[in-house]
Specification:
The structure is a single chain. It is built from ten helices and 15 strands. By secondary structure, the protein is an alpha+beta fold. The chain folds into four domains: 113 residues, DnaJ domain (Helix Hairpins, Orthogonal Bundle); 131 residues, HSP40/DNAj peptide-binding domain, CATH 2.60.260; 74 residues, Urease metallochaperone UreE, N-terminal domain (HSP40/DNAj peptide-binding domain); 30 residues. Strand 10 and strand 11 form a beta hairpin. The radius of gyration is 38 Å and the shape is elongated.
Length: 380
C-alpha cells in the first residue's frame, strides 16, 4: 500500500500554520492542480484529490488536532472507536463531501479568480448594474496637442428621469427573488455562475407603480455639454476618462464613464514620431556648398536660427535638442530633426549657366571630381 503524503506538505505550509494560512495555501494549490487547468493530466487530477483531502482535515479543528497527534492513523479503521480512535463513523476522510458548504464557499472564491476578478460576494450590486460607458472622439491640431487645450463637447445620453429621480416609479419593494442583491448565483457542482436577476433587471427592487415618463426604467434622453481639459503631450488614440459622465444606470444605479478619444489632425509643417518632430528643409546648392544660417519654424511658435555646415548633402539630418513635442504628464521635450534636401535649380539665366559651366570645368582641372566614365574605369 502506497504511503500517504503529509497533509501539511501537500498544502506547502508548516505544522502549526494558522487557519488563514492553510486556507490561502489550499486556494493556491487547488487553482494550480484543478482539472480544468490541466485537461487530461491524470497526475494533476490525483494531486487535486489529495489537496482536497488534506484541506478537509486541516480546516476542521477536531480533525486537525487528531491528525497532529496521530497522523494518518487517526482516520484508519484499525484504531477502532475507543478513546482517541477515529474510524469512518467518526472523522474518517474516505468519504468527505466535496459539496459541503465550506468547500463550496472557498471554491466560489477560486472560481471567481479563474474569471479574473475578486469574490463575487464582495462586489456591490450597484457596480454590477452601473450605466453604460460612452465614447466621444475629438480632433485637435498638433499645436494644441503640444500646449494642451480646453474644449467644450456636446452629446446625448440616457440620464436620470427627472420625474421619478431615476427610481422608475414609486411603491418600491425589495426583490423577493434576489433579496436586493440584483444578481442570481447558480452553482452546478464545483462551478458557480452569476447573472442579472430577471425579476428586477438587476436593480434589487421591484416597482409597483412605474413612472409614466420613463416607463419604469428610471432613464430619459438628455443633452449634455462638458468642458474637458486635454493635457499637453497627447497623441493619436490617447484616451481620457471622465468619471460618471456616461449613461445612467437602470433604476437609479450609478452613471457609467465617458471616454474621450483624442485624434491629432496632420500638420502641414511637422511630422510627429512620439516625442520627436521632423521638418523637411530645402536649401540651395550655394548654401549647401558654402554653408549658411537659415531660419526654421518651431512648434512653440516663431522661428529659430540654424547653421548649415559647408558641404551639406541631401539626406543629412540636423537635430535641434529640446525642440520637439512635450511628453505626456512631463515637462520633458523631444527633439526636432531637420531633413535636409539640396535643391537643384531648374530655371537658370544664361549668365548662371555660364558660371556653372565655369565652376564645373574648374573642378575638373583641379581634379576635384571625375566624370562617370572615369569612375567606371577606376572600378574596373
Amino acid at each position: 500500500m502506497a504511503t500517504k503524503s503529509d497533509y501539511y506538505d501537500l498544502l506547502g505550509v508548516q505544522k502549526g500554520a494558522s487557519d488563514d494560512e492553510i486556507k490561502k495555501a489550499y486556494r493556491k494549490m487547488a487553482m494550480k492542480y484543478h482539472p480544468d487547468r490541466n485537461p487530461g493530466d491524470k497526475s494533476a487530477e490525483e494531486k487535486f484529490k489529495e489537496i482536497n483531502e488534506a484541506y478537509e482535515v486541516l480546516k476542521d479543528p477536531q480533525k486537525k488536532a487528531a491528525y497532529d497527534q496521530y497522523g494518518h492513523s487517526a482516520f484508519e479503521n484499525g484504531m477502532g472507536g475507543g478513546a482517541g480512535g477515529f474510524g469512518r463513523g467518526g472523522f474518517g476522510t474516505g468519504g468527505f463531501d466535496f459539496s459541503s458548504s465550506s468547500f463550496s464557499d472557498i471554491f466560489s472564491d477560486i472560481f471567481s479568480d479563474f474569471m479574473g476578478g475578486g469574490s463575487s460576494r464582495s462586489r456591490s450590486s450597484s457596480q454590477q448594474r452601473r450605466g453604460q460607458d460612452l465614447r466621444y472622439d475629438i480632433v485637435i491640431s498638433l499645436e494644441e496637442a503640444f500646449t494642451g487645450t480646453t474644449k467644450n463637447i456636446s452629446f446625448r445620453r440616457n440620464g436620470k428621469c427627472k420625474k421619478c429621480g431615476g427610481k422608475g416609479g414609486d411603491s418600491t419593494s425589495t426583490c423577493s427573488r434576489c433579496h436586493g442583491s440584483g444578481v442570481i448565483n447558480t452553482r452546478q457542482g464545483f462551478f458557480m455562475s452569476q447573472s442579472v436577476c430577471p425579476d428586477c433587471n438587476g436593480t434589487g427592487y421591484t416597482v409597483k407603480n412605474p413612472c409614466s415618463a420613463c416607463g419604469g426604467t428610471g432613464m430619459e434622453t438628455e443633452s449634455k455639454t462638458l468642458e474637458i481639459k486635454i493635457p499637453a503631450g497627447v497623441d493619436n488614440g490617447t484616451k481620457l476618462r471622465i468619471s460618471g459622465e456616461g449613461e445612467a444606470g437602470l433604476g437609479g444605479a450609478p452613471f457609467g464613464d465617458l471616454y474621450v478619444y483624442v485624434m491629432i489632425r496632420p500638420s502641414k509643417v511637422f511630422t510627429r514620431d512620439d516625442k520627436n518632430l521632423y521638418l523637411n528643409v530645402p536649401i540651395s546648392m550655394a548654401d549647401a556648398a558654402l554653408g549658411a544660417t537659415i531660419e526654421v519654424p518651431v512648434i512653440d511658435g516663431g522661428k529659430v536660427e540654424v547653421r548649415i555646415p559647408k558641404g551639406t548633402q541631401t539626406g543629412e539630418h540636423l537635430r535641434l535638442r529640446g525642440k520637439g513635442m512635450t511628453a505626456l504628464g512631463s515637462s520633458i521635450r523631444g527633439d526636432m530633426i531637420l531633413n535636409i534636401t539640396v535643391e537643384t535649380p531648374t530655371h537658370l539665366t544664361t549668365h548662371q549657366e555660364e558660371l556653372l559651366r565655369e565652376f564645373a570645368e574648374d573642378r575638373r582641372k583641379n581634379g576635384d571630381t571625375k566624370n562617370f566614365f572615369d569612375k567606371i574605369k577606376d572600378w574596373l
